[in-house]
# Entry
Amino acid sequence: MIQPDTQTGQLIVFSGPSGTGKTTVLRGVFERCRVPLVPSVSATTRPPRPGECDGVDYHFLSEEEFHARRRRGEFLECFEVYGGHWYGTLKAEVERALEAGKWVVLEVDVQGALTLMEQHPEAISFFIQPESIEELERRLRGRGTEGEEAVQRRLARARDEIALARRYQFQITNERVDQAVEEICDILNQQAEMQAYAR
Ligand code: ADP
Ligand code: 5GP
# Structure
């Protein structure tokens, strides 16, 4: 395990169109990367998918609870992402991890990512690209978690999101999972070594 700056931790922003493989790739990154990564568990008003656990995949909140927390200023960023569902990064999640010197992984949509990158220019940012829109469509359908209308909504949004990919520090094409994982781990290990060296 590389010990980077254990005083302050590091924010890592991951974004890209829905279905591009972020969750799949991140699973590999968490297993294989040599820096002390932790996920930030977001809050959402979307209902859990089969197999998803509250407090692990998301904090699943009612609309009332989400907006009460929003009014109390508990989110670093929050947006309505798909089909009227809200998603947000909880300040408490991120602060706890950063104070422990962890590298906190924030998997967020493009609106959230741009907000976080503006608030935290020191964040390391990744955009996960699909090989093509056709492949993205195949993956979204193959996952089988969304109905036709939701798939179309996600594809329409994907085009706008891809247009913003240049704003991110690193763009990774997820053609093969193991290759994408390796590229990301190499970048993170290198960043950690640079921080350790600068100390
Ligand atoms: P996201 O988190 O970006 O919405 P997922 O990780 O859920 O995307 O992946 C969407 C679907 O595509 C899943 O069924 C996953 O198994 C599949 N998938 C992910 N990466 C690849 C890849 N490189 N090649 C083929 N299928 C992939
Ligand atoms: P899903 O419903 O597939 O889990 O996620 C849908 C979208 O919401 C994805 O693009 C995901 O990155 C995004 N998302 C998840 N958590 C957050 C969050 O805390 N903030 C923002 N802005 N987007 C999020």
User: Anything to note?
Assistant: The mean pLDDT is 93. The chain has one domain: 10-192. The longest strand covers residues 75-82. The first helix runs from residue 22 to 32.
